[in-house]
Amino acid sequence: MTATHRTLTLPPPLENGDRLTRDEFERRYTAQPEIKKAELIAGQVYMASPLHARAHGQPHARIMGWLIAYEVAMPGVEALDNATVRLDADNEPQPDALLRMIEGGQSQLSEDDYVVGAPELIIEIAASSASIDLHDKLQAYCRNQVQEYLVWRVYDQEFDWYYWREGRYERLELNDAGLLCSTQFPGLWLDKAALLAGDLAQVLAVLQQGLAVLLDLR
């Protein structure tokens, strides 16, 4: 009787393409710990395919190295890897990486250890421009005022950096030195060419330059 009752009360399995409320999405996701990544975007469930080493794992690791180096140098910010974000009633993404302000920022941590609200910066590793990352997710992040959104299109060998301004995203352009510099996080500089070439040492060296300039200004 007890076993039968447990079986009957289990939630339905989470399936790619399901249309769900955020509460029901969380209920089904929590009941299937074998699922490592699922997201709710505009009320629809998206489940990741197996991830390749060169197309996702390596770029992801390099981005995290860049963010962690910034976090170490800048108290008051927090870098997170694949953390679920309760963005709004229809969107609960699990971005590849994010950077948030711990105090006085747009997001908080809930009692059950989820990010609630829009982090200041979100990064996604995408296969190409056809990915959801540059369509439905971009719209959801913009609508919730994620201040900066970065998409690394690995197969295209491109890196898109958007910043929120007056209700829409604008593309951040390279400065005169050929660098991308965050509008939200002082000293967070990126050598896009070095990143795409796999030169992580140069990426970190440029970040240190940005941090050094910040310290000089102080």
- CATH secondary-structure class: Alpha Beta
* Inertia-based shape: globular
The helix/strand order is HHEEHEEEEEEHEEEEEHH
Largest sheet: 6 strands, mixed
Assigned CATH superfamily: tt1808, chain A
Task: Classify the beta-strand content into a percent band.
Answer: 15-25%
Mean pLDDT: 92
Strand order of the largest sheet: 3-5-8-9-10-11
Approximate helicity band: 25-40%
Number of strands: 13
Q: What CATH architecture do you see?
A: Alpha-Beta Complex
| Measured distance between first and last alpha carbons | 69 Å
Structural write-up:
Helix 3 packs parallel to helix 6 (200-217). By secondary structure, this protein is an alpha+beta fold. The strands form 4 sheets. A 6-stranded mixed β-sheet has the order 3-5-8-9-10-11. Strands 4-7-6 form a 3-stranded mixed β-sheet, with no helix packed on it. The chain has one domain (14-217): tt1808, chain A (Alpha-Beta Complex). It is globular, with a radius of gyration of 19 Å. The protein has helices spanning 2-9, 22-30, 53-73, 136-143, 192-197, 200-217; strands spanning 38-41, 44-47, 77-81, 85-86, 97-101, 108-109, 115-116, 121-126, 148-153, 158-165, 168-171, 180-181, 189-190. The chain starts with a helix and ends with a helix. Mean pLDDT is 92; it is low at 1-7.
